[in-house]
Every structure is written in structure tokens, then in C-alpha cells.
Amino acid sequence: MRQSDVDIIRTQVEVVRRTNLRTGVDRPSGFRYTYLCPSPSEYRWQRFWDSCFHAVVMARVDPELAVAELRTLIGAQEPDGFIGHISFWGGSFFGDMWGRLQSTYAWRQQHTALIQPPVLAQAVERVAELLGDAWLPTEFVEPLDRYHQWLAEHRVPDDDGLLVIISPYESGMDQSPTYDEIMGVRGKAGRWGLSIRDRWLDLRNTIDNYNSDKLVRANRFRVKDALVNALYADSLATMARLHRRHGQSRMADGYASRASTVVASLMVKLWDRSRGAFFSVYGAAERRTEPLTVGALMPLVVQELPEEAAQMLVERHISNREEFFLPYPVASVAATEKSFDPRSKGLIWRGPSWVNTNWLLWRGLGRHGFHDLAAQLAERTVAMVAQSGLREFYHPYTGQGLGARNFGWSGLALDMAG
Ligand code: GLC
Less crowded by CB within 10 Å, the N or C end of the chain? Predict the structure, then answer.
């Protein structure tokens, strides 16, 4: 890895820290917010998993901002523990009509009613680690307990412990081919209708006023997603560690056992040994989705994953130069898939490489002892971001930057640089 590349990324991150910073007092609640928006031109509100990643990036350049970002995200928490995927700080009701289609009817609601992949506990732990502040998590543990409680009560309907998502937006990989079949998309032509189908689902969910229990039962989009559940298992395991460090062993044991249940269910329901990857299941019948996407690899982040599965994921797929480890890895869809589109024009998550999934897989590689591949992935990611700037996603063959500019979470390359 070239030091000059790392310096370039640090400068880019410093720029984003200024251009994406949003501060103010939220009128209805009087809450003082501080966060980085994902991209000033495309995404102006606080987003759940972006914010978690931003906190990690900021821990590298501005520790105070890292903590403020986490506090603002917790500031969006409802009394019942829920945290929405978009928080409209300082926004007016008519400020974001699409976002309102993902919210309940409540007139003054300042956030959507959707979730995003659970990475908040991991962000809190990582920020504490980077800042060398073992006591930092203390203030976050109680809200994190309530957050996990909400997930368990409203989104874990079965005794397999797996989390259900009710919209592709909840996966964070909005238009991934994983969901094509569920969304009724067939063939190339069908893809162009996907954005409309997404909005149609939003509308139907809005009519049900985003009642989670009802939507989980409604079966319109009921997915036990590989990436979401991998991060859920990781989140539960992280909570176990945080509680253990604070001497709360009963709580720690509870989280650890829930994490084990999720891992066991991932192995029983989502793991396909013949294909060596994890496939999301959907509907009441829990049919397996078929496309091989980056989500299918994500259980690698789980420390407790059986070694045989980790090895197959890495050897057959992650390191595979025909599928995911293209010149600028990791492709969001295997290059061998019919749906693979390296530019992903007009749609997202259909081929290009994303820095957040690289960061997560890089952690997974390290956890399972694949240090050489982890180093290669870090080196390629740093080269890609230094070359093309902080963009939303990147062409996996050329490294060309695509999508939104000044995109915050791509600064995770700085964390990968070590
Ligand atoms: C895209 C991504 C989503 C992210 C958002 C803001 O919609 O799919 O995961 O939160 O952009 O960056």
C-alpha cells in the first residue's frame, strides 16, 4: 500500500468532514444534531448505517465528531427502542416526499419507519477501540439494549432467531438482484421497472402504516436476508462483548446465546453447502433466492461461523478472480451472474464494488485468519479510492468512481489502511 495513497484519502476525508457536516437544532424536538450526510448532492439526511460507518471514519480524523455522530443517531431513537433508517433532522414534512413514503402517518414523525443493517454496536465498539477509550460504550449500552429489544420483538417472528426485513431498502442494498424474483423482476427489461416496483411496495407498506407485525405477516416482502442476519449475529456478539467488559455477565450470556441461535439458523436455513455461500430466504415457505451477490458472502464477518463455511466462502468466492475478486474488488454481484452489470447504470448494487462491504469483509477475513487476502483487499480498496475519490461505488474492472460524490462511508478505506 502506498503511503501517498493513504495521504490522498486522508485529505479527501478532511474535505467530506466539512462538506457533509450538518448541525443545528431540530425544531419539533429541540434536539441539537451533528452528523455527516452521506453525500451533499444526493443524500442530505442522516442515514442509519452510513452514520455508523461515518463514526468509524471520523474516529481516524476527528474523535469528537465520531462521538457526536453516534449521539445524534441515538438521539433519533424512539422510546420503544426503534431507530429509523433516515432521520430528517431540521427537515419539514414536505422536504422529502419519497422519504415520507417510508414513514408512518404520524405528522411530526422525523424519521422513516424502516430499519437498516444492524451495525451500530459494532461502530460503537470500533470507535472506542480507535480512540482507546474503553469506557466510551457505557453511555451507548442502554440505548443499544433497547434497540436490540425492539428488533427482537418486532422483527424476529420465528424461533430460529432470524431477523425479517420488509423492504429491500432495509437490506441497505436497495436494488440488489437478490430481490429480483421477490419483486417480480424477470430478465433485463424488467429491471427498468424495478424503481417503480420499489415505490409501489413503499406505498402499500405506508397504507399499512408500517405496522411491523402486520407487514411481517403480510408476506409482501418477507426476507431473512444473509447480509442483515450476518450483521445481526455480529451485533449480538458485539453486545455480549460490551456487556462482559462492563461486568454484566448475565446480559452478556443472553446476547451470546442469541448470537449462537442466529448463527445456527444461518447454517440450517441459508447456507448452501453445494454452492459454498449463504442465500437469503423469502416468504412463508422460506424459498431460497438464487443470485450470488456480496450479501451471500457476508456471514464471514461472524466470528463464530464454522471454519469449513468460512473457508469455502473465501476459497470459492471472495478470492475468485472470475467472480468477486476482480481488479477492484469486491464486486457486489458475482461477475458470472446473468444480472451482473459493472456500471450498474440507473440502479445500484448490481455489480460495482462498495467500500462498506469491503470493510466488513476485510474484518471477516482478519477474524478467520485470512490475513494475506485481507491485506490485498485493503491495498486494492485504498488504491481505488485514492485514484477515484470518495464515490458511492466503483467500477470493479477499472476502479472508476460512480454514483454520488463526496460519499462519506468510502472513507472507511482509511480504516483499512491501518
Ligand atoms: C443507497 C444505499 C444505502 C445507503 C444510501 C445512502 O441508497 O443503497 O444503503 O444508506 O444510499 O448512502
Answer: C
Place of cell 454496536: 121
Confidence of residue 333 (pLDDT cuts 50, 70, 90): very high
Q: Domain 3-186+193-417 adopts which CATH fold?
A: Glycosyltransferase (1.50.10)
The amino acid occupying position 215 is L
pLDDT tens per residue across span 37-80: 999 999 999 999 999 999 999 999 999 999 999 999 999 999 99
Spatial separation of the C-alpha atoms in residues 21 and 67, rounded to whole Å: 14
Best residue among 47, 111, 195, 353 to mutate for probing ligand 1's pocket (most ligand atoms within 8 Å of CB) is: 47
- Atom 12, ligand 1: residue with shortest CA distance: 38
CA of 172 to the centre of ligand 1 (A): 6
Residue 107 has pLDDT above 60, yes or no: no
Which residue out of 22, 35, 50, 194 has the highest number of ligand 1 atoms within 8 Å of its CB and is therefore the one to mutate?
Answer: 50
Q: How far is the CA of 349 from the centre of ligand 1 (A)?
A: 10
- The secondary element (H helix, E strand) that includes residue 21 is strand 21-25
Helix (H, G, I), strand (E, B) or coil at 359: helix
Q: What are the sequence ranges of the domains in the chain?
A: 3-186+193-417
Averaged pLDDT, 265-275: 98
Task: Give the Cα separation of 375 and 311 in Å (integer).
Answer: 17
Residue with cell 465520531: 66
